[in-house]
Write a structure and sequence with these properties.
- With 348 residues, the chain is an alpha/beta fold.
- Helix content is 30%, strand content 17%.
- It is built from eight helices and 19 strands.
- The chain has helices spanning 20-24, 46-50, 70-74, 100-103, 123-126, 172-175, 266-303, 310-347, and strands spanning 7-9, 16-18, 31-34, 39-41, 54-58, 81-83, 94-96, 110-112, 133-135, 158-160, 167-168, 181-183, 188-192, 194-195, 198-199, 208-210, 215-218, 229-231, 237-238.
- The chain is elongated.
Length: 348
């Protein structure tokens, strides 16, 4: 490869085979390399990345393997674009679960034969002052956000970490950054978007925000009411308006679920759990007392009966006792199911 070559774009083709040779052939600095939407295989070019020669590295939707190279990525302090979404998500490395559906005109589900994995390097948020776009979606990343005690680089405009397995709360530094696109959807983030009534969100009406299908709660930021491109309600449980029953507080009017979303909050869930426990305890105790009294009084009634009905009455007593036990069991099972569902909702 020519040493003077600074930019190589081979995206949106059907190229396949190992990609290592392409990386090893170049020793240019501030190199722009875009091989997105192909079918390249092999391991991630960690040694090449570790030379710190990239200004832009785009490998979206290929069939690469390995784990996210944390240390190697941190060396590239001059990088402006890092787009590594779906490193092992191209169609060539998918396996259809129900392939016959595609022949009928339906979209078939699929699973990936391999995953990338790894966790988020802190350096991507603190040590790359020129970074404008960061996309790591669809790589089965685990863990939580690293501890970020400072503001994100002001150049960072796009952050896409969707479709991973990230947990924990969203840092204040992320919520306060003025992104043009913030996509953290389809993860397991939890916690509230505000603390003690103070909202740490700096997005504007021109932003695109996607936080759906997480485990977020609390009150939505007032600044998000008028954002035109927003999806946050689905799969989360945000608080209701304290002044209007059943209406989501600061409801984002452009969210697809704005008119049908059922609001809720942690305080509502706690109340439901407490009520369910009290009703369950009271109901089970009452049923147990009734059965006990019934069984203690029945022998006195039976002694007054004629002798020839003794056998049938004894049989009837066991049947009634069994029916009473079944009723109590069904009642307690129903209450346990209600408590389990309510508790699971609260846990989300």
């Amino acid at each position: 490869m020519q040493p003077s070559l600074k930019t190589l774009v081979i995206a949106n083709n059907s190229l396949s085979g190992p990609i290592d040779d392409v990386f090893e052939a170049s020793h240019a600095t501030n190199w722009v390399f875009n091989a997105a939407y192909n079918q390249f295989t092999g391991s991630l070019p960690i040694q090449s990345i570790a030379r710190g020669q990239y200004q832009s590295l785009i490998l979206t939707d290929n069939c690469l393997s390995g784990t996210l190279p944390r240390d190697a990525l941190c060396i590239n302090r001059n990088m402006t674009e890092l787009l590594l979404s779906g490193l092992h998500a191209a169609s060539a490395c998918r396996s259809d679960l129900l392939s016959f559906l595609s022949t009928l005109g339906f979209q078939s589900s699929y699973f990936q034969t391999d995953v990338i994995g790894g966790s988020l390097p802190m350096c991507l948020f603190t040590d790359m002052p020129l970074l404008t776009s960061l996309a790591l979606s669809g790589n089965s990343l685990i863990g939580s956000f690293p501890t970020i005690d400072q503001q994100l680089p002001p150049t960072l405009e796009l952050l896409d970490l969707s479709h991973n397995q990230l947990v924990g709360s969203i840092p204040r530094a992320v919520l306060s950054a003025p992104f043009s696109l913030l996509d953290l959807s389809f993860n397991r983030f939890s916690g509230e978007l505000s603390t003690n009534g103070t909202v740490y969100v700096g997005q504007t009406a021109a932003s695109q925000i996607s936080l759906q299908v997480n485990m977020l709660s609390g009150t939505l930021p007032r600044a998000w009411i008028g954002i035109e491109s927003i999806q946050v309600l689905e799969g989360n449980m945000f608080a209701c308006d304290s002044n209007t029953l059943g209406v989501t507080a600061n409801n984002p009017i452009h969210d697809p679920l704005s008119s049908t979303y059922t609001c809720g909050s942690s305080s509502t869930n706690i109340a439901m759990v407490v009520v369910t426990v009290i009703v369950g305890f009271t109901g089970c105790s009452s049923m147990a007392w009734v059965v006990y009294r019934y069984r203690s009084l029945k022998p006195l009634v039976q002694e007054a009966r004629v002798q020839w009905r003794l056998a049938s009455n004894l049989l009837g007593r066991h049947v009634y006792d069994l029916m009473g036990a079944v009723v109590v069991l069904l009642f307690c099972t129903l209450l346990y199911s209600i408590l389990t569902v309510t508790t699971s909702v609260y846990a989300e």
